[in-house]
């Protein structure tokens, strides 16, 4: 049996290899890349037994499973290469990595990078990698101003292109553009040509977690991620990884290293790699390392140029005032790019009188003691008048609730804002505020996927917000004004078990904060002291764990916070952590968001969440659903309107009780590759308006009862690779307005009832699938068949 299976593997592999060779002949960017990867695997197939120690599978099953992977790979290449977006690479890599966990797929990454000229939206591909938590280099800036930047790029490039190992420190005050410079440098053709896929961009920040960084490095390089129990173990695993990848040149960027974290840089040094470059960005000089490159502020003329560019209204209707006034404003901005951008955006479109008023305000603080304090003071004054709309400043301050240098999911912010500012359920108006923060350079709004702006129900599920660390400091500084007990926002960043003195006092006054954010590091291990939060409406818990910490205990004071409406719990460690004290979650909560935690559905069925309207799981272990009568989801959360499950790979089925929740309007099960079927009773969920099942690769059929969902207006089944047919009676979904079927290679025909979808307005698909829908134009003249072809430019990013 084994021999036959092995022969089948070789046959299937040969077919796949031949197909790839045939395809890449027509695409110059692909030539040699996939071929090289498959050739390297071919030699491995001849020695399959040598991999038995790597895989916890019976030897006789390995060839059979690999045979299935090659068949799937054949299907993917044959069907998907025609529009070839990033999902192609993810799927192929997924199949290969599962069988060969220790193989390095540099060729696949090389393919992704070298085919940027062929892939029409390379920026979207890059942003997708960023959002997935990869250590890929963030997108390069649209433009950079200054001769200093040109000189720095040239000097640093020269140093990196030299052979040998070195540690270079790029130092400058906050806001000078150190990170921006390194992003630009890493995208230089010569640098990418030398280091290829061995460039890693690691945000270190104020509280570095070596274990987490090392695990992300393993993931980034295509290796099985180790479970690390201590910092010493992390250092050992790091050295082992560097030796594995160090046959070729390696570039490691350690971004935003604080003075207290100098020792962590030593751990990344490896003398066994011949051509290994480390670049550190920091506000501090580290005399232990050399060379040190000082990035100076812009010259006065360059600063004026940048200010003028940022302050000019997009349509050119209003320009900057006279040069003298502009010169004075630039002086107060200390010629720092970040400050210039923020202040200029706050003045965009304003008249001469407003400029004079702002200049007077800035002049009042120019004698402060140190540069960083002065920068913050300058930025703070730019917040004083945001077009007379104090809500923009409020939203800006809310961003301080999330850790430094993290990608903040836009949906998490919208969840907060819906409850804090009494918005509609869908967060109407919140998106406008996100764009306003981005427009004013108070935050960066990131769109990971090309089609994320074509969001039919405005869920903004693929949007992220990032904030410069100086701006985060400014937000926290604004939040910390006044006495602790009187603050509207309480933002606490705990190191180990060190609580503020006021918290440990026995006679504690109730706090007035409406928004509370508490962040803990991997050394936090104690029980929570009590905290009286009678006014709290939103609680954000950010935490890290280590291998010794098996659970993260939710604080008991949650149960005694009567007004708490929104709870966001995020684990910033690599692996999910089980939540303890789950019983403290109260019945008054309306929105809950969990990220990287273990929360079985069984537990959800045992608690009372009568007011809950939305619950989200991202990269969680949610376990198998319970169908027992004593733990019904419908009893636990009878008023749920939205269920969002994303990247939860252990989810196979939903509990039937979900279908008994009558108010449910939105159901999103996305990127769950083991999810295989909707409940047969889904037709009972008659209030559903949005059904998203994209990238559920194991989903093969939709239940016939889906025809009863007559209020559904959006059905997204994109990237469901095994979905073979639409339900026969889909025509009964009379209010269906949009269907997304991108990346459904097995879907080869449409049921006859499709002609009954009189309200269907838009179908999104590939060119070869449009043939199926074309005849419908005769009966549905208003139908728009949108072909999925990524645009050959990045204009949408603007």
Automatic annotation (TrEMBL):
| Listed Pfam families | NB-ARC
For the biological process aspect of GO, one term held by this record is: defense response
Domain (NB-ARC) spans 156-312
Which residues, by range, are in coiled-coil regions? Answer: none
Q: Does the keyword Repeat apply?
A: yes
InterPro entries with a match to the protein in the record: Apaf_helical (IPR042197), LRR_dom_sf (IPR032675), NB-ARC (IPR002182), P-loop_NTPase (IPR027417), WH-like_DNA-bd_sf (IPR036388)
List the keywords (alphabetical). Plant defense, Repeat
Name assigned to this protein: NB-ARC domain-containing protein
């Amino acid at each position: 049996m084994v021999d036959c299976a092995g022969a089948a593997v070789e046959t299937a592999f040969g077919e796949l290899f031949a197909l790839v060779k045939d395809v890449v002949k027509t695409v110059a960017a692909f030539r040699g890349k996939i071929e090289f990867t498959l050739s390297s695997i071919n030699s491995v197939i001849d020695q399959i037994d040598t991999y038995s120690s790597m895989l916890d599978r019976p030897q006789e099953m390995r060839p059979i499973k690999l045979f299935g992977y090659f068949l799937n790979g054949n299907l993917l290449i044959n069907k998907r290469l025609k529009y070839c977006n990033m999902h192609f690479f993810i799927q192929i890599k997924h199949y290969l990595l599962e069988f060969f966990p220790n193989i390095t797929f540099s060729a696949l990454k090389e393919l992704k990078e070298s085919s940027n000229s062929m892939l029409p939206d390379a920026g979207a591909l890059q942003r997708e990698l960023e959002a997935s938590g990869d250590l890929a280099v963030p997108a390069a800036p649209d433009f950079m101003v200054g001769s200093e930047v040109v000189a720095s790029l040239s000097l640093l490039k020269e140093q990196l292109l030299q052979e040998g190992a070195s540690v270079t420190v790029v130092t400058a005050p906050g806001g000078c553009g150190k990170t921006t410079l390194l992003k630009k440098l890493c995208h230089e053709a010569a640098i990418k040509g030398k280091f290829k896929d061995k460039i890693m961009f690691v945000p270190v920040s104020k509280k570095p977690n070596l274990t987490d960084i090392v695990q992300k490095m393993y993931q980034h390089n295509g290796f099985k991620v180790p479970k690390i129990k201590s910092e010493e173990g992390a250092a050992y695993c790091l050295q082992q990884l560097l030796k594995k990848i160090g046959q070729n040149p390696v570039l490691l960027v350690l971004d935003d290293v604080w003075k207290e974290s100098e020792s962590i840089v030593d751990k990344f040094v490896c003398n066994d790699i011949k051509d290994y470059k480390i670049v550190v960005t920091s506000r501090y000089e580290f005399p232990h390392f050399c060379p040190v490159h000082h990035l100076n502020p812009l010259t006065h003329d360059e600063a004026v140029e940048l200010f003028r560019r940022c302050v000019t209204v997009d349509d050119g209707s209003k320009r900057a005032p006279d040069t003298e006034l502009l010169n004075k404003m630039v002086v107060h901005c200390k010629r720092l790019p970040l400050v210039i951008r923020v202040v200029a955006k706050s003045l965009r479109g304003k008249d001469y009188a407003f400029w004079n008023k702002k200049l007077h305000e800035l002049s009042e603080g120019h004698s402060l003691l140190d540069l960083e304090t002065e920068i913050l003071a300058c930025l703070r004054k730019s917040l004083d008048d945001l077009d007379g709309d104090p809500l923009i400043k409020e939203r800006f301050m809310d961003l301080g609730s999330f850790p430094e240098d993290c990608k903040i999911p836009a949906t998490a912010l919208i969840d907060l804002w819906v409850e804090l500012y009494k918005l509609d359920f869908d967060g109407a108006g919140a998106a406008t505020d996100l764009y306003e923060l981005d427009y004013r350079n108070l935050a960066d709004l990131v769109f990971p996927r090309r089609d994320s702006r074509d969001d039919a129900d405005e869920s903004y599920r693929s949007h992220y917000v990032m904030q410069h660390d100086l701006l985060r400091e400014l937000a926290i500084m604004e939040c910390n004004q006044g006495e602790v007990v009187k603050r509207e926002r309480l933002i606490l960043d705990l190191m180990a078990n060190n609580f503020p003195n006021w918290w440990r006092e026995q006679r504690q006054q109730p706090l007035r904060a409406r928004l509370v954010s508490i962040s803990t590091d991997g050394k936090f291990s104690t029980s929570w002291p009590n905290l009286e939060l009678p006014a709290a409406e939103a609680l954000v818990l950010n935490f890290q764990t280590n291998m010794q910490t098996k659970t993260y205990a939710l604080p008991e004071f949650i149960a005694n916070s009567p007004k708490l409406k929104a709870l966001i719990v995020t684990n910033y460690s690599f692996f999910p952590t089980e939540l303890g004290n789950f019983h403290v979650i109260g019945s008054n909560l309306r929105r809950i968001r969990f990220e990287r935690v273990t929360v079985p559905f069984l537990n959800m069925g045992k608690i009372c969440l009568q007011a809950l309207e939305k619950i989200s799981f991202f990269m969680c272990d949610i376990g198998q659903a319970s169908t027992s009568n004593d733990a019904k989801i419908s009893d636990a959360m009878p008023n749920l309107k939205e269920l969002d499950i994303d990247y939860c790979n252990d989810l196979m089925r939903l509990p039937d009780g979900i279908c008994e929740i009558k108010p449910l309007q939105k159901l999103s099960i996305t990127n769950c590759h083991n999810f295989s079927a909707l409940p047969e009773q889904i037709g009972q969920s008659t209030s559903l308006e949005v059904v998203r099942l994209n990238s559920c690769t194991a989903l093969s059929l939709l239940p016939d009862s889906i025809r009863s969902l007559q209020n559904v207006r959006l059905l997204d089944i994109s990237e469901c690779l095994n979905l073979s047919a639409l339900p026969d009676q889909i025509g009964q979904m009379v209010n269906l307005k949009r269907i997304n079927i991108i990346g459904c290679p097995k879907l080869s025909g449409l049921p006859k009832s499709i002609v009954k979808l009189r309200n269907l307005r838009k179908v999104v698909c590939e060119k070869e699938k449009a043939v199926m829908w074309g005849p419908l134009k005769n009966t549905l003249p208003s139908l728009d068949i949108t072909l999925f072809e990524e645009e050959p430019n990045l204009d949408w990013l603007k």
